[in-house]
Amino acid sequence: MDSLQDTPARVEALSDLSRFRAGLHACFTRRGDALFELADAMLCAQGPVRSPVEMSLEPEFRRRHGSVYDALAKGRITGSRLRRLLVGLSAPARAAEPLMFAIDTTAHPRPDAQYADERTMVQVRGKGGDRWLPGWPYSLVVGIQWGSSSWVDPIEARRLRPGEEHTDVTIDQITGLLEDLTATGKQQPADPPPLVLLDAGNYATDLTHALAGHDVQLLVRLRTTRVFYLAPRLGNRANGRATAPRHGVLLLRPRQTTQSRLRTHRGLRAVRHRERPRLERMHQKLGSIGRWATWPRDKQLPIVRGTVLQVVVDHLPDGRKPPKDLWLWHAGPVPADPDLLWKAYLRRFDQEHFHRFAKSYLGLASAHLSSAAATDRWVSLAMGAYAQLRLARHLVDDLRRPWHPRPDPGKPLSPYKVRLGFRRLRARIGTPTDSPQPTHPGPGRPKGSKNRPKSKRPPYRRSEPTTSKHTE
Question: Residue spans with biased composition (Basic and acidic residues) (predicted)?
Answer without folding.
Answer: 461-472
